[in-house]
Amino acid sequence: MWYPAAAGSVESEWYVGVFRFGRNALEAPFADTRRHPLIVLSHGTGGSAAQLSWLAGALVNTGFVVAAVNHHGNTATEDTAWPQGFVLPAERARDLIVLIDRLLADTQPIRDPRIRAVYAIAPASVALLHREELASIGVPVRFALATDDQYIVFRKTLRAIEDHLPNATVITIQRAGHHAFLAPCSLRGTLFLRALCTDAREVDRRALHNRVGRDAATFFDNHLRP
After folding, report:
1. Does some domain include residue 63?
2. CB–CB of 47/76 below 8 Å?
3. How many domains does the chain have?
4. What CATH number has the domain bearing residue 218?
């Protein structure tokens, strides 16, 4: 979880492997006792909750509380990846429902009315969904898509959104690849994990994160504030 920390909380740098996840005040007290809108984060295939720390920070700075989960069988935080974690996407939705339940001590079906807006970053399966599945989405959705995504066909994904989700909106990141949405890398990562850590010359990963973070915060601000 990420939330506004009380004044005077001591921050430390957060590293995991070659990735730098920013500065955080671990287990710091809340800055206040006000109610804050909740954003839940779902990481990409084979990723982790920590990889979205840059997005969480941008949202917290705008006044949200953010919670994330590592999807069992589909996360880099576990030693083993399980086929179910990759081919049963509904399990990921249930993970988020359990997360909300744990936070609010409540139970709901798979379509959870507490989820009132969705910000989807480089989602992998949009172009594969049936028209009826996309049309059934009844909440505001905004997509962040990279034009040079190595795993997602940008034009097919954009066409599916335009054809079947006419009320959805899209922010397009020119020349960026899929891994540009990962956390910034250390020098070691840049040298030895170029596939994950190196972006096109025109792409500044930190600037991209700042842009998408601001965009997500504005989107949720528009749809979740009273």
Report:
1. yes
2. yes
3. 1
4. 3.40.50.1820
